Structure prediction request, 69 residues.
Amino acid sequence: MNAINTKVLPTRRKQVALFSSDPQFKRDVATRLDALAIYDVQVSETADFLKGPPADTRPGIVILDLGNG
Prediction:
C-alpha cells in the first residue's frame, strides 16, 4: 500500500521590497507580511527606490508608497 508522505517541505519565501517614508505604514505592512511566513520583506526609504535593488536580491514584489503620511 502507498503511504501518504506527511513530510512538509519549506517553500522559498518571496522577496518583497517595501519603499515608504511613513514609519507606521512600513511597520504595519512588514508585520502583516512577515506573519504570513511566505514573504521576506526588505524595508527602505522612498528615495532608495530610484537606486534600484541590489543585483543579488531582486524582489518579486515591489510596494512603493508615495503618500505623505
Notes: Residues 14-64 form a domain with the Rossmann fold fold (CATH 3.40.50.2300). The mean pLDDT is 82. Helices lie at 23-35. The first helix runs from residue 23 to 35.
